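User: I'm new to structure prediction. If I give you an amino acid sequence, what do you actually give back? Let's try with this one:
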Amino acid sequence: MNAPQSSQELHYRIGVPALGHFPGHHRSSRGDSGFEFRGHASLLDAPDPRRLDLHASLRDPFGSWIVRVYSQRKAIPVVMVADLSASMGFAGTRRKLDVLADFVDSLAWSAWRTGDSFGFVGCDSTVREDVLLPLTRARGMGDALARTLRSLRLQGRSARALSMAHRYLGRQRSLVFLVSDFHLPLSEVEDTVASMAHHDLVPVVLWDPLEFGPSTRRGLVQVTDPETGVTRLLWWRPALREKWLAAQQQRRDALLRIFQVNRVKPLFIEGAFDADAVTRHFHS
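Assistant: Good question. You get back a string of structure tokens that encode the predicted 3D arrangement of the chain. For your 284 residues, that looks like this:
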């Protein structure tokens, strides 16, 4: 079955054995009725004579009966935790909210194709109940959620609730995509990332090429803070442009330090969503 033309399929993986209860795509160390060879064990520890390995038994120095041990592939929960504060409404080369919606559509479809469950937690100053999606294996939920996100009104002045999103993730280890422009205070970034240490976390930084000021235009420009709505007039000149670009680089470096300390690998999306770029993130 092929994906709808509007959905781009991406491929992800986790770095540790899956601990789920449902059969799926990901390697696991559980499920003796599986078909993936894991190793050998004594018949006393794994009492299944159907899997007796005579060659391994003959080689055993203690004369024990040895059986082959197999494992099943398991499904995992895949959750997107998204910043829905006002700055995510920024429209440059593309509106950030549309990029987020494209990502949701692609990730939900890919999770369904893989046999994983998908959930969504949207945050501004509070966790937004109107877009909260508990883990589900239902087909088509991502498309419906993406349409809702595209028409969403973003009014939150902060993304403070991101640090509370871990309460909605459950106890089972999940693959979590934390999607934001990360314009919140660095202390909140640290708290949010640390709160999800139990999970396989992928911070996704959504930036736009025009976000840090026009690249070539000179003269008087109107600049609006997307979080507060405060508008200022600035005389745009090369020196000011260089200052803004330096601020962008400083912000990137600060975020990279936080991610490195917490041993997570970030993904930067600067412009349109590209499913292949997400796939490369997991295979590079």
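You can read the tokens as a compact description of the fold. Here is one thing that stands out. Helices lie at 54-59, 96-114, 141-150, 186-195, 238-261, 275-282.
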